[in-house]
């Protein structure tokens, strides 16, 4: 934004310091003068011989006092003005030095350099608090930009894969006109379905990230039951047992997004499980100021380092036991984004016996309160 040139903050502070010092000096001299006027008589009678004179007369004390006091007061005020300007300029420069470092860092950030940090030394005050907050913002922004760049690269790769496969299938069909048309259609249908699923997942991720949804009163325990009932045939098909229990867990958010979050967690727990006799536990609980949804499962042993990367887009901890249920690699990334959009926290912990425990904690609310 183009702005008209104006006085610098340092000059404004200097003039303020000098003006205040001058104002205080004027008040001081005014108080002194009033005090003198109160106790000094207007005139005094001179007795012969008392001051070395031989004549009687009336001496004007106040007028002579003013004649002596005024020039000296003016000289002192002029000195205070110079002192205020010079001292104020130096003091303002010293006080604004941290702000200069913040401004320089802001200019670097505006050019795209997000790795620079202010790291202002000294004890905590307003400027150092501003610098620390700015450093934290730069750190989060740098991590967010890096994450978005990785996401864009991964999304491009994932979207290019089904398109490349479809092109290869069509090239084969063109080269061999006698190729079975039914098989070609089935393969293209599968590839197209995967591309559609990936696109819908990306749109859902973007919608949750922008927080463009209507908030309403919801109960996580009801969503856990709905997700379990919906995915129960899938669990029975692959020999996975689902155990659900818990309390009523009221919160505020998007019913569709929170249901998608629960569905993703339960489906992920079914798919990434033991080949036989796997178990999934779904539990809801209430804490003093939050509600908690916990989904854990049996499965392969995972390291904490691997678990910490599972919420990144297109990251998978283990190969799917059931290869016929293809995913797009955005399940837990969507869960993380939906959780953050609802001001919650997502925690992933590997189980010592194998598998993983995923906990979603959201702010609690009174289901009978006004919306």
Give a description of the structure.
This protein is 57% helix and 15% strand. It is an alpha+beta fold. The chain has three domains: 9-113; 139-210, Orthogonal Bundle (Helix Hairpins); 216-363, 2-Layer Sandwich (Heat Shock Protein 90), CATH 3.30.565. Strands 4-6-7-9-8 form a five-stranded mixed beta sheet, covered by helices on one side. The protein has a two-stranded antiparallel ribbon with strand order 1-2. Helix 6 packs antiparallel against helix 8 (331-341). The relative contact order is 0.07. Residues 52-56 and 319-326 have low confidence and may be disordered.
What's the arrangement of secondary structure elements?
Elements: H1 9-39, E1 43-46, E2 57-60, H2 61-110, H3 126-175, H4 181-210, E3 216-219, H5 220-237, E4 240-246, E5 250-253, H6 255-271, E6 278-286, E7 290-297, H7 304-307, H8 331-341, E8 345-350, E9 356-363
Parallel strand pairs: 4-6
Antiparallel strand pairs: 1-2, 3-5, 6-7, 7-9, 8-9
Helix pairs in contact: 1-2, 2-3, 3-4, 4-8, 5-6, 6-8
